[in-house]
Design goal:
Layout: H1 3-15, H2 23-30, E1 40-45, H3 50-63, E2 68-71, E3 83-85, E4 88-89, H4 92-111, H5 121-135, E5 140-144, E6 159-164, H6 172-175, H7 179-186, E7 196-198, H8 205-216, E8 221-223, E9 230-236, E10 239-245, E11 250-255, H9 261-277, H10 285-294, E12 302-304, E13 310-312, H11 318-330, E14 336-340, H12 348-355, E15 359-364, H13 375-378, E16 387-389, H14 393-402, E17 407-410, H15 413-424
Parallel strand pairs: 1-5, 1-6, 2-5, 6-7, 7-8, 13-17, 14-15, 14-17, 15-16
Antiparallel strand pairs: 2-3, 3-4, 9-10, 10-11, 12-13
């Protein structure tokens, strides 16, 4: 199997749909012909910030001299982004080789009756990561939850630490219509006796729910933010001069990612390191500072100096768009040309309200996804002003350039990924 054949096979798998359940994938992992017991897994869940926090933590551990696997989803431009070691994407051949093993093992288990059905698309990707991380002998593997937590395939693993970032309303049809229900689903990653870090604010129902479940499972609990753990920061040129004071020490560092919410994500990674220290894993302070300062994640309020400038962000729900609007306000942005598209299950009217004060011209488009909201329906959510519809993403970008104003692209991670390929001429392997 080569990489092109691997993509074709995954397209076939994707058409079979998804399923949130653990029994089948647990049986497959239990029957893998390789041992993953020596890998120290760290599982990261949450509504927003889980991807950036995973990157910060990976960057810190890498700076400390460890070999660090990272499994994330979805991807921006290539599914190879989902599986990395020390921030380097899995190669096309390594991906194809690992997928071939997953396919062979799962088919054998199904034919022998040991498992009921082949793995889903997401489960295939998880299994590929496990084969690859085992082959490359990683020390740690930071595993980002795909959806929810309790029934996510990553919850079949035995982590040494779990992290739950901020929680807000998203995927409510699957996870529940209240923050307490959503938090309980996310807290399903908590294992008996395994430390858990929560970056939810202490006075929220989400944090109270997570803490209660941690106590029920005798899991040591760490707040990122409370009366003994506080952050302060100031915007200085192109970075945030930051301080995070915990009940152990003060950390002074610079955050070079855009948006002050990234300071909170960095603080969560620090609190995770402190939790690891209680398990006897010592990370030197210089590695923590260096890891934070070197960390960058594509598609998170990313800027490009092309023509009049481009701001590209994968924000796709109310909380992430609010964080983007805070950044736009902080930078004094106004009169932007907005390219906007969303998936149909998002609260797009609330997202739009956060963006309206900063934009002048609006171009409505559609993310490349079967779940995309039709542009003709989305356009009705905007107040009357200069609005056009361009379903072709290349045409949308060309029209935006004509206004000769800074361009803002947001509303969907799928949209951000496709547009990033157009803007950079970068990787697009057809996945």
């Amino acid at each position: 199997m080569n990489f092109k054949e691997a993509l074709s096979y995954l397209d076939f798998v994707h058409e079979r749909g998804t399923k949130l359940a653990l029994e089948n994938i647990q049986k497959i992992i239990d029957n893998l012909p390789v041992s993953i017991d020596r890998i120290r897994f760290i599982q990261v869940a949450g509504t927003n910030g889980k991807g950036s926090t995973s990157h910060y933590l990976t960057s810190i551990l890498k700076e400390a001299g460890y070999r660090v696997g990272m499994f994330t989803s979805p991807h921006l431009q290539s599914l190879r982004e989902r599986i990395t070691i020390n921030k380097e994407w899995i190669s096309e051949q390594d991906f194809a080789d690992a997928l071939m093993k997953v396919k062979s093992v799962s088919e054998e288990l199904v034919s022998s009756g040991k498992v009921d059905e082949p793995p889903t698309y997401f489960e295939h990707m998880l299994l590929v990561s496990l084969f690859y991380f085992q082959k490359k002998e990683v020390d740690f593997a930071v595993m980002e939850v795909g959806l929810g937590g309790r029934l996510d395939a990553t919850s079949t693993l035995c982590p040494i630490l779990t992290i739950i970032t901020s929680i807000s309303f998203d995927h409510t049809k699957t996870l529940g219509k209240s923050l307490a229900l959503i938090a309980a689903e996310k807290a399903g990653i908590i294992k008996k006796g395994v430390p858990v870090v929560s970056s939810c604010r202490t006075n929220t129902v989400a944090n109270r729910t997570i803490r209660r479940i941690a106590e029920e499972k005798s899991a040591p609990f760490f707040n990122t933010f409370d009366k003994n753990n506080r952050i302060t920061f100031n915007r200085v040129s192109d970075f945030y001069d930051s301080s995070y004071c915990t009940d152990k020490r003060e950390y002074r560092f610079r955050v070079f990612m855009n948006g002050n919410h990234q300071v909170s994500n960095a603080a969560t990674s620090i609190k995770a390191i402190e939790a690891l220290e209680t398990a006897g894993i010592d990370i030197p302070l210089p590695a923590i500072i260096s890891g934070i300062e070197k960390n960058q994640v594509p598609g998170r309020i990313e800027t490009f100096n092309i023509r009049s400038g481009i701001i590209l962000d994968g924000g796709h729900n109310e909380e992430s768009i609010k964080a983007l609007s805070d950044y736009l306000k902080e930078k004094g942005k106004k009169g932007l040309t907005l390219i906007f598209g969303v998936l149909r299950d998002k609260k797009y009217r609330k997202m739009i309200r956060y963006l309206e004060p900063f934009v002048e011209h609006i171009i409505i488009t559609e993310p490349v996804s079967p779940r995309a909201l039709p542009a003709e329906k989305l356009v009705r959510a905007f107040p009357e002003r200069h609005i056009s519809i361009q379903k072709n993403l290349g045409s949308a970008l060309e029209e935006a350039f004509k206004f000769n104003r800074e361009i803002l692209i947001t509303g969907s991670l799928y949209l951000a990924g496709e547009m990033r390929t157009l803007v950079t001429g970068g990787v697009n392997d057809g996945s």
